[in-house]
Amino acid sequence: MQKRIVIIGAGATGLGAAFRLYEKGHLNWSIYERCDRIGGLASSFTDKEGFTWDLGRHVISSQYPYFNRFVHLLLRDRLLERAQQARVYLLDKWVPYPFQNNIHHLPPPQVLECLLGLYKAQSTPNTSTNFSEWVTWLFGPGIANLFLLPYNSKIWGDQIDTLDRGWVTEKIGTASFERILRNIVLNMDDIGSGSCSTYQYPSSGGIGGLFQAIVPLIRKNLVLSAPLSSIDTESRTLHFENGAENTYDTMISTIPIDRLVSLIRPKRHTLIQSARMLHYRSIQTVGVGLEKPAVDTCGGWAYFPESDLPFYRVTSLPHISPAMVPEGDTARYSSFLCEIPCRQKAAEHAGPVTEQAVAGLERCGLIDGKDRQAIVSTWGTTVEYAYPVPSIDRDRALASLHPALARMGIFSRGRFGSWRYEIGDMDHSVMMGVEAVDRILEGSSEPTAGFRAGTTPVQA
Ligand SMILES: Cc1cc2nc3c(=O)[nH]c(=O)nc-3n(C[C@H](O)[C@H](O)[C@H](O)COP(=O)(O)OP(=O)(O)OC[C@H]3O[C@@H](n4cnc5c(N)ncnc54)[C@H](O)[C@@H]3O)c2cc1C
Question: How far apart are CA 391 and CA 163, in angstroms?
Answer without folding.
Answer: 4
